[in-house]
Specification:
3 iron, 4 sulfur cluster binding; transport; 65 residues; alpha+beta; electron transport; single chain; two-stranded antiparallel sheet; binds iron/sulfur cluster; Alpha-Beta Plaits; 2 helices
Length: 65
């Protein structure tokens, strides 16, 4: 599975990388950067949690191509 950020929808408040530092970090602008592609099996529950927890619905988890 692949975790993607919709940068147009993201508000940059940092909930995702604050709650899941193994999955996401931030750049100098405070925008999230996905650290793992594909998401390892062991982190899938955390990935679903950040997707569900993003207030802007800016994160998606989809099958890796
Ligand atoms: S929680 Fe959502 S809106 Fe907030 S920084 Fe992360 S991706 Fe962006």
């Amino acid at each position: 599975m692949r975790l993607d950020v919709d940068r147009r929808a993201c508000a940059g408040h940092g909930l995702c990388y604050g709650n899941a530092p193994d999955l996401l970090d931030c750049d100098d602008q405070g925008d999230p950067i996905v650290l793992v592609d594909p998401v390892p099996e062991a982190l899938l529950t955390d990935a679903r949690g950040v997707v569900d927890g993003c207030p802007e619905r800016a994160l998606t988890l989809e099958a890796a191509p």
